[in-house]
Amino acid sequence: MSDVHHSVFDSVHSDHVLTNEHSVAFTLKTRCRKCSLLTEQLPVGVSPEVHVTLGTERSEPDRLRQNSGLTVYLRDSRPNMADEATRRAVSQIPMLKTHAGPRDRALWPQRLKEEYQALIRFVEQNKAADNDWFRLESNADGTRWTGTCWFVHELLRYEFRLEFDIPVTYPDTAPEVAVPELDGKTAKMYRGGRICLTDHFAPLWARNAPRFGLAHLMALGLGPWLAVEVPDLIGKGLVVHKERPREAAE
Amino acid sequence: MATVEELKLRVRELENELIKCKQKQCAMEDAHSQALNRPKIDKMSAEVVDSNPYSRLMALKRMGIVDDYEKIRTFTVAVVGVGGVGSVTAEMLTRCGIGKLLLFDYDKVELANMNRLFFQPHQAGLSKVEAAEHTLRNINPDVSFETHNYNITTMENFTHFMDRISQGGLEEGKPVDLVLSCVDNFEARMAINTACNELGQIWMESGVSENAVSGHIQLIIPGETACFACAPPLVVAANIDEKTLKREGVCAASLPTTMGVVAGLLVQNVLKYLLKFGTVSYYLGYNAMQDFFPSMAMKANPQCNDRYCRRQQEEYKKKEAERPKVEVVEEEEEVVHEDNEWGIELVSEVTDAELQAASGTVPDLPEGITVAYTIPAEEPTSGDTVEETEQSLEDLMAQMRKL
Ligand SMILES: [Zn+2]
Description:
By secondary structure, chain A is α+β, with helices and mostly antiparallel strands. Chain A has six helices and ten strands, in the order αβββββααβββββααα. Chain B is α/β, with parallel strands linked by helices.
């Protein structure tokens, strides 16, 4: 029994969400191994609603207690600041209303207007929060987008060109953002410099389609990707600041 | 010490020499392959002689497996994505003597692809469709080829793609017989799904998981079986302990073995479907870790997001109603839930309200197959929406540029 529980918590340590500063809630469900059905029926003695209180020592593995009386450990239960900031930023981006892709001649212009409205609001919010980090613009029919994004690392600004096409299946599927100049420098990329998003992105997008737009793609897709990859690339010397000669970086 | 200029000159000399060598080699290879290439064959022969490339295939007829093997030459198959699975699929169909192949891919051959089958290092830099056509034509000159080097998910290419699916058959103007999805991403699968739902085109989907140890094939008959948008993406559970699965620093892994198995399963299903033998699989999974092959059939979802899927379902219902009824008695096996059969997993990890909204229904799936994620029935209500605006699109574009 304890093994089962351990694996449950172990598999989730990195991405659960705080309900407030000191507690976290999630629901346990079980999947029948015979019929694969998910139910809330649980082995005797385990409640489906698990509330745990975080420990006080941040550096220590947090010792948690759930209401069935079992004690479990999380390696680091709290989301990092980047996640928290992202979540806050996303909650401020207005949702879109029009469910239309580029093949929908009648409604696409309306969708495009909403995309621009949301992007403008997002950029303005970023500026206000002193966290301006990208610009985007499209061709006249809004099917091809280009722009720049930048990332500040140790007081130096690193800027990258970005581009993507709106797929015919948008907004049911998200566009694939590419940062071509980083192609071949990181394994977290598919051919052509298309960034490799986390496992969480696809479900998140699918659940929020068609209300998520390009501003959400920037905030949840490209933003977190840059935050992880760019410092790593700089550390490896694969990205060098433009005003800094290559020799100095080595 | 040579100067930089001298060295540059030397590099240019060597480059020119290399180009000459390459040209010479190409000319020799062409002459060589010309000499080796057999002429086209008008009629498949069952004669068992060394020079007959179809003798072993035609033997299938003699053995009573296939009624009419020659019929393969009348079929056209479109292969979308000529990567690890698609290239092998195309090669198998070529060797089987398919009538016509349409190949779609926007990618180039890279040395990083060399852990997979089919392409060779000297083809690096060529477009995949071009390199594939060259190799396949050499293998079987009887097959007609049509190649398109573009990304099907963008606006103008998608229109052309749909046009070729509906017009690109062996006889120009007729639709292809089958579309095979051998792409490696969700957008392209959804694009194929959209096209096939609109055209009522039967297709087969294939895929290998990003951890390279599971895969699947699926037959999609618009209106009848579940389309790709009818349910969240299905995944074959590889039963890997999440604790040991690390995703840091990598996007995807790939194995030539898994890709070869999936291509084999796919083409086997294609042959069974086209030549009408055996049982055609609707969904067949492959779990490489346990060598487990779950299979199932899934009906189209009346609430599917794709309106063309819903329209095809209406059509199908009408057709079914007109057909004389045959009573089929289905025996339903009772599932017994035993206490020790439970495996606990964590589904959602947010607040109570979000919890309710975040987990949607899971379709009834057999052991070993699950969905990548669920979609809640109710729309999430958090967050405000964009306001009505007086501004025109041009105004907004200009405003964005000024920021
Ligand atoms: Zn559907």
